[in-house]
Structures are given as C-alpha cells and as structure tokens.
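Deliverable D4.2, example record:
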Amino acid sequence: SHPLPPTLFEQKMAIQPEFENEDAWEEFLEKTDPRKRIEKKGQGYTWSFGIDEDDEGFTRDCVIIEVACPRETDPTHVKAKLTPSHLKLDVHGKEVINDDFCDPKWLDAEESYWELEPKTLKSGERVKNLRYLLYLRSDCPKYITGTLFEKEKAVANAQEEEAEVDTADARIQQIANLKEPEPRRDEDVYFSEEEEFSDYECEGCGSKSVNVMKKADDREFKIYCNDCPYVTKADLNKEAPSIRRQREIDEARARKKKEKEKKKLAEKLAIQDQIPVDLDELEAVD
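Output generated by the structure prediction step:
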C-alpha cells in the first residue's frame, strides 16, 4: 500500500489550491484516486491500474488485464506464462499477449493470477472475461499509470514517453508544493503585512512616496507627491488589494461554473439529438 490516505479523495477540497491551480489539482485528484480505474486499450486486451482485494481480503495495488473470450472458453483453453519481466498469454491457441513489461521491477509474479468470469457486453453478447490480476510488490514505490508493455511504449507519443515516473514520493511532493490561498475575510478585516493603507501612488510620476492629507484650504483629502508637484484627489474608499483579488476570483469562479454547466447541458442535449452542437464551440468553453 502507499501513503495516500483515502480521505484525500473522499474530501476533495480538504486541501484548497489557489484559483489558478484548481483545474490542475482536480486533474491530479482524478489521476490519483485509486477507486477510479482508467482503462487503457492494447491489441486485443485492455488494462487498468488501481486497488483490488486479494484472497485474504486486503486491498492491494494491482494492474488488471482483461481479455474478452468466446462464451465456451474454459481454463483448459488458456495458457499463460508470467515472469517479472514478461507475459505470454494464449487463448484457444491464439496469441493475445507476448511482450516484455516496460519495467521488470514492480511485479509480484508469485501472487498474481488469472480468472474467468461470465460477462455481458454492451451489445448484449455474452462472453467469458479473462481477468489477469498483476499485483505490485510491497516494496514497489511507483504507480503503473504510463505504459505497461514495450509494444505500447513504441506507439506512445513523445510526451507520454518523457513523462515523469509516477511514484508515491512524486505525488507527496506535489501535495507538499501546493500553495493554498489566503484565508477568506470580510471587507473590514485587514492583514498588517499588506500595503493596504500605503499603496497610494502619484498619478503624475508614479512615485509611491506620497502623503494623503487634507490641508487647511482643501475640501477633501488629496495625494501630495514628495517627488513632484503633482496633486490629485485621494480615493479613501479604495478597495484593498486582497479584497479586490478575492472579488475577482469569485467572479471568475462563477463564470467558470456557468460555462461548465452550459457545456454539460449542451453535451446532454447533443446525445438526445435535440439540437445541433458545434464541437469547436464546446472546445472553446474549456
């Protein structure tokens, strides 16, 4: 098992990122949620990585390879040879997999096994589903989220090939580097370290060396520059920088939520064939 607690996924916003990083954080949570298996397709098989219960009732990280077999398939029709570096799998005398693993160090070959179970496809066809459960070694620090076999790696694009190895340390480091936003506050609450009372500047020369005062002959407070003779009216109701940013983020978040709702509705209506949907327009919403 790995040191990422289940509560991290059950309470997604227990850690709150800054607004600019919210989408990346959501993507990270989706990627690292062990309950959500992302299915990847190979030539004649699919595979996914996540957690599964072993024979003793313990949850363990494992890769599950699935192969749709004819309905009449029984164990005598399956031949498999598994080593930490290679898998050869034949069904009904036909080769399904004969390939090296990209990494020969993660697999616990002795604990891994395959099984057959009835399954009904979306088309209604009943088949036998071969599931090969490949358990990770207890001392393996990585997650199998990239490519599984060498042939997959050969056809993967350059970005996937150069991606960082997905390990527990890398995930913990990403969480540790996450910068949380400032505490939310009311408009009459200020932080002393911010320049909320001294951020006036001269509109003539841009100098921050100014005095805000109301002289004897002034009818209102004005900004007097110490570096030039420019004088202008002082806005005493100026919004604090942190309050202004908080308001702008609220507005941006509301816009993003509305756009996501519009996109979701458009996709739903498109499925129901009620209205034509411009795919370019949907992409623009992203």
